[in-house]
Amino acid sequence: MGHVIDETAGLLLKFPDRGSDLRRLYMASESFRDLVRDFNDANAALVIWTANGNADRQREYKATLKELENAILDMLRQRPARDN
Q: What is the Cα–Cα distance from 15 to 11, expressed in whole angstroms?
């Protein structure tokens, strides 16, 4: 379970009311796990490009993160919210 928490930690900050659903979906769906990994990779890249001061790359990764967040939300909306 620790790996699930590590992988979903960034998303838990974005969607704190969906913690149980994030963990459950992460365990049940490979395509969701891929989205989470992509989100984490893009978030890490944004940190690097922000530190380097590259505004073009920052915009690129912010847009990528927004697209991934929307895809994640779409998957979460397909599941009813549950208590955390």
A: 6
> Could you list the mean pLDDT of each consecutive 10-residue stretch along the chain, which spans 84 residues?
74 90 93 96 95 95 97 87 48
Chain-centre distance for alpha carbon 81: 17
- What tokens appear for 48 in the block? 């690097």
This prediction has a pTM of 0.84
Helix intervals (H) in the chain = 2-14, 19-28, 30-52, 55-77
Sign of CA dihedral 62, 67, 70, 72: negative
Amino acid present at 59 = R
CB 21 within 8 A of CB 76: yes
Listed by start position, the domains of the chain span 2-77
